[in-house]
């Protein structure tokens, strides 16, 4: 299809892109679902209503070389960041815009198994609100005889530059557990649950953030009851456009999940325990909150709706591999 240069110039302006994005987010109430079934990775869009009907199947931008699936690092303004690091020391990171069927495979990061041997990494993805540019943050812990070295090495990929660069700012001495592979993007910042040693035997948990604009790390205190929890049992999330922390009683075979919400961003005293999902050990993965208050859950191999008030469960008829929703 051919269009005139003036049309192309118009639809490429930041103001048009912003207006189109605002229109799309207020007009369409859709949920993107990823599940893994019969050794196949499936992406689809669904209407966000009671029956959850499918709107459109999407083609995954790439297929992994392993039997596992891509992990969704995060999403921002319709752009998704995918990586295949669930399956070991692989380096494939993809930025994907499913609405226009375009994707970009990033260059191989600097820290790899070939360059450093044993390491563990955590990713973040979001929009630099100052430069209006998407960025991927890669935090890598290099292996040592006693575990992993701190502080970690940090790399940044800016979409506008199309390249990785080493972060040259101050990296605090913090640790992270990549069990849930979670991040939460809000207010131009990427957030993770992190921890640091208070003394040789005591760790204290907090929310670590990286501000993508001026590229600095910062901390947000957790509620007192979460500070000394095992960090593997917690992850950051966005619930109702608010920074939240999901606390599981156990990372596997979990019986419950408590949802904490920070009602005023950055104000420690505004942390509030919203509710606890109690499902008696039925392998629950909390996926998200719908506008009517229902929770989307991965219960074993089933996708279900959970009403926190009535505690009723509605099976949505979508099956997949455990923990892959």
Structural class: mainly beta
Relative strand content: over 45%
Total beta strands:
24
Number of helices: 4
Mean pLDDT: 84
Alpha carbon gyration radius: 20 Å
Q: Assign a percent range to the helix content.
A: under 10%
H and E string: HHEEEEEEEHEEEEEEEEEHEEEEEEEE
Query: Which overall shape is indicated by the principal axes computed on the Cα atoms?
Result: globular
Low-confidence parts lasting 5 or more residues at pLDDT below 50?
Answer: none
N- to C-terminal separation?
Answer: 36 Å
Largest sheet composition:
5 strands, antiparallel
Structural features:
single chain; 325 residues; mainly beta; five-stranded antiparallel beta sheet; four-stranded antiparallel beta sheet; 4 helices; 24 strands; 9% helix; 48% strand; globular; F-box protein
Give a quick rundown of the structure.
The chain is mainly β.
Fold and architecture overview:
The protein is mainly beta. 9% of the residues lie in helices and 48% in strands. It has helices at 5-11, 14-27, 113-116, 224-227; strands at residues 30-37, 40-47, 54-58, 71-76, 79-83, 93-97, 102-105, 119-128, 133-144, 147-148, 153-158, 163-166, 184-186, 189-199, 202-211, 216-221, 234-239, 242-248, 256-262, 271-278, 284-289, 295-299, 302-306, 313-319. The longest helix has 14 residues, at 14-27. The chain starts with a helix and ends in a 6-residue tail after the last strand. The mean pLDDT is 84.
């Amino acid at each position: 299809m051919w269009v005139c240069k003036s049309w192309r110039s118009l639809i490429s302006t930041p103001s048009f892109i912003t207006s189109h994005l605002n229109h799309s987010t207020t007009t369409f109430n859709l949920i993107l679902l990823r599940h893994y079934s019969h050794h196949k990775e499936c992406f689809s869009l669904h209407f966000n209503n009671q029956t959850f009907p499918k709107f459109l199947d999407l083609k995954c931008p790439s297929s992994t070389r392993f039997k596992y699936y891509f992990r969704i690092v995060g999403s921002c303004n319709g752009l998704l960041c995918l990586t295949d690091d669930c399956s070991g020391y692989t380096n494939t990171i993809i930025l994907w815009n499913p609405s226009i069927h375009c994707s970009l495979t990033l260059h191989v990061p600097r820290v790899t198994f070939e360059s450093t041997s044993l390491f563990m990494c955590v990713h973040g993805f979001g929009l630099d609100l100052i430069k209006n540019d998407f960025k991927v943050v890669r935090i890598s812990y290099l292996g040592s005889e006693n575990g992993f070295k701190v502080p970690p090495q940090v790399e940044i990929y800016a979409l506008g530059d199309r390249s990785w660069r080493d972060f040259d700012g101050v990296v605090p001495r913090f640790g992270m557990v990549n069990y849930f592979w979670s991040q939460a993007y809000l207010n131009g910042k990427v957030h993770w649950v992190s921890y640091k040693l208070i003394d040789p035997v005591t760790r204290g948990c907090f929310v670590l953030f990286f501000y993508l604009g001026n590229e600095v790390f910062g901390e947000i205190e957790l509620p007192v009851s979460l500070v000394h929890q095992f960090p593997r049992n917690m992850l950051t999330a966005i619930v109702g456009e608010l920074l939240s922390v999901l606390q599981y009683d156990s990372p596997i075979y979990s019986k419950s999940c408590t949802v904490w919400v920070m009602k005023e961003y950055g104000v420690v005293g505004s942390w509030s325990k919203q509710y606890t999902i109690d499902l008696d050990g039925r392998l629950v993965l909390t996926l998200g909150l719908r506008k009517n208050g229902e929770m989307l859950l991965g219960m074993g191999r089933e996708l279900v709706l959970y009403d926190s008030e009535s505690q009723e469960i509605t099976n949505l008829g979508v099956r997949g591999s455990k923990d892959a929703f």
